[in-house]
Amino acid sequence: MATIKPFCGIRYRLSDTIDLSHLITQPYDRIHDAEQAAYYALHPHNFVRIEMGRRHPDTPTDNVYTRARAHAQSWLQQGILMRERIPALYVIEQRFNAPDGRPLTRRGVTAALSLTRFDEGIILPHERTLSGPKTDRLNLTRATETAWGHIFVLYPDATNQIDRLLQPFVEAHAPIVAREQIIEPDVVQRVWVVDDAAIIAAVVEEMAPKRRLIIADGHHRYETALNYRDEMRARHPDAPANAAFNFGLVTFVSMSDPGLTILPTHRLIHSYARLSSAEVLNALAPYFYIQPMPTRAAWLQALSNAPADRPTFGFYDGAHTLLTLHAPEAMEQLAPERHPAWRTLDVAVLHKIVLEHVMGLTQDSIARQENIRYLRDAGPGYEAVDRAEANFLFVLNPTRIEQVRACAEAGEVMPQKSTDFYPKIISGWVALPLTGLIE
Question: What is the pLDDT of residues 44-76, one digit of tens each?
Fold first, then answer.
């Protein structure tokens, strides 16, 4: 069962003069050098100093993790951060425009989730993790004894019952910040602290029987939480089940939420010399219908209209070509051990037949991103190809939620960067202390 509990979160102490959008950030894996510098400049108490602080010539006693701990402790002492007085659930509402311009709203509820292993079937992954990010997040957790980053989890709820339970509270209470906060470009964020005991109890009860919840974002954070839990259980073998380290910080979104959006992640190939683009297309002819398109608009329209059961993607080398798989048996031959749901993913077909089998890239080289860059926006990819700074670009449709669910339930792990759930669950607006008990 999915055991969730309200908790006394750590969050910024807010007032009418404080702009939360100057304080909170994208998740750590979206913070690169440019974003980090911008966040540092935005406000002296910006959450980046905890989430992804600057590295100096670090030492065992003065490093990015000890400085994060010092910031957290100092900000709590100064009243910049505060600890909730009574346990609560937290609702985050994100309003944004879909790629086609439609206005959408997605709502999530944040709670402490009792951690379980994947083989228990309550929480399921869909992506592979890497050791480096888990080590980094575990070091931060050890130093601060706090879960700062949110694990974004999808739960089955065909009638949106949990949202219905929360709606009366949301309608009757103002969000904790009156002004609209824009964190990710063009995404309005609103947050409520739900402290109504009856509503909390109803949400906890509704979530309890659910199984096969899927991690949308935060696979590294979830596995880090499990690793930290296991460390603490070994250190405190007599601790009760409601010890805070047995829980993870999770924001839950219904699989039926009308605002649930997955963006595609395109593949830009660079520094690749084995085959020319013409040779790649020639080698793909036994597997794909190869259709040159007269314009980019026609090409993108054809890609968008591709049948759901026919893996299709675009190929750009200065000209626009549509690639549609006509030999599905190739996937059975190249990946006989994989579930049929995995073998029909556009990204799986691209990686297995095109990148590995035809182009000769290895799974390890792809994981290291030696010849590949992942792009949310295809625009820079077109420009890089046009300037001869890259070889060619593969443009993809988004993976569908039904495909994510089918692969997760089959125990399959998708290729790297198969999903880009948009918008991200922002960091810094509430955190879960991992000391003491969760009542």
Answer: 999 999 999 999 889 999 999 999 999 999 999
251, 257, 258, 263 alpha-carbon torsion, rounded to 10°? 50
The three-state DSSP-derived secondary structure of the chain is CCCEECECCEEECCCCCCCHHHCCECCHHHCCHHHHHHHHHHCCCCCHHHHCCCCCCCCCCCCHHHHHHHHHHHHHHHCCEEECCCCEEEEEEEEEECCCCCEEEEEEEEEEEECCCHHHCCEECCECCCHHHHHHHHHHHHHHCEECCCEEEEECCCCCHHHHHHHHHHHHCCCCCCCCEECCCCCEEEEEEECCHHHHHHHHHHHCCCCCEEEEECHHHHHHHHHHHHHHHHHCCCCCCCEHHHEEEEEEEECCCCCCEEECCEEEECCCCCCCHHHHHHHHCCCEEEEEECCHHHHHHHHHCCCCCCCEEEEECCCEEEEEECCCHHHHHHCCCCCHHHHCCHHHHHHHHHHHHHCCCCHHHHHCCCCEEEECCCHHHHHHHHCCCCCEEEECCCCCHHHHHHHHHCCCCECCCCCEEECCCCECCCEEECCCECC
Look at the block and give the residue holding tokens 């944040």: 110
CA distance 215 to 153: 4
- The one-letter code for the residue type at 77 is Q
The confidence score (pLDDT) of residue 98 equals 87
Q: What is the pLDDT, as a whole number, of residue 182?
A: 61
Q: Other C-beta atoms within 10 Å of 101: how many?
A: 6
Given a cut of 50, the residues of the chain with pLDDT beneath it are none
Domain regions of the chain by residue span: 4-261+422-433, 265-397
In whole angstroms, what separates CA 112 from the centre of its chain?
18
List phi, psi (to 5°) of 133. -60, -35
Q: Calculate the alpha carbon distances from 421 to 124, 155, 238 in Å.
A: 16, 14, 39
Predicted pLDDT of residue 185: 66
Which residue from 229, 277, 222, 211 is spatially nearest to 250, judged by alpha carbons?
A: 222
Q: In the prediction, which pLDDT does 127 show? A: 85
From its phi and psi, is residue 373 left (phi > 0), alpha (psi between -120 and 50) or beta?
beta
| Nearest residue to 81 via CA among 22, 13, 8 | 13
